[in-house]
Amino acid sequence: MIPSMEQYDRIERAVTRGQRLVVYRRGTEYVVIPLRLAARGGREVIEATNPTTGDRLVIFIDEVESVELVG
Question: What domains, with CATH codes, occur in the chain?
C-alpha cells in the first residue's frame, strides 16, 4: 500500500513530537514510538521502538495498512 499524504503527516508529526503511533501491518497492530523516517534498500521505513520493551523495530511503509496517532 502507498500511504496517503494524511498518513505521512501523521507519521511525521509523531516523529517530531515523540508521540505513539498505532501501525497495522499484515493484520497485526503495533504500538510504537517512531524515531525517524529513513530509506533502506530503496524503500521507506519507520524506525521505531516498542514503548513497553524498548525493542527497536523497522517497519517498511509499503507494508503498512493504516496508521493512527495515539492520544
Answer: 5-69 (2.30.30)
Task: Classify residue 43 by burial, with Cβ atoms within 10 Å: 0-12, 13-18, 19+.
Answer: exposed
Backbone angles phi, psi at 23, to 5 degrees: -115, 130
pLDDT at 1: 64
- The percentage of the chain sitting over the pLDDT mark of 90, rounded to a whole number, equals 66
Sheet strands (E) in 1-71 = 21-25, 28-40, 43-49, 56-60, 64-69
Whose CA is closest to 71, among 31, 38, 42, 35? Answer: 31
Report the predicted TM-score, pTM, of the whole model to 2 decimal places.
Answer: 0.84
Residue with cell 517498511: 60
59 three-state secondary structure: strand
